[in-house]
């Protein structure tokens, strides 16, 4: 059974209000999947969906929130073996020393976004390009690495109001480009990566 079918089964025996809340939780869980962040805890889902119809973690964890916990448990079970890749490893292992679970989660999310931005920038800048730093300004010595006017205009359009309004998109707090329903169209840090590339190239 996939997640959508599981959701439908839960909604069959739920009130319209609970069904609406289940839909909100389901959408947040889908966004976590797309970010490859397999954290479906009540605290995390409640924080991410606090203004989108998701109840507080305390409400999810109490007796009346059992149906919500079942949905979260379903998502968690699907990715139980993948939790080792939730966050970047290696240089970021020091984050595990943070005592506060909430702070640790926030720092891990920031580290994941930074890794995504670096990966995106690497796609724009060829490995052979040399970057010299002088007076806090990046100077690319390889002329082939610079954008042409046409390439620059194309990238500028991706983060422009004209493009976003045309398709009903917006930019989330994570730098994602999302549609009107909140579904991620372009992954976390995309808008930040594009702007950085435009600044440096």
Automatic annotation (TrEMBL):
Name of this protein: Uncharacterized protein
Q: Which domain of life is it from?
A: Bacteria
InterPro entries in the record: GmtX-like
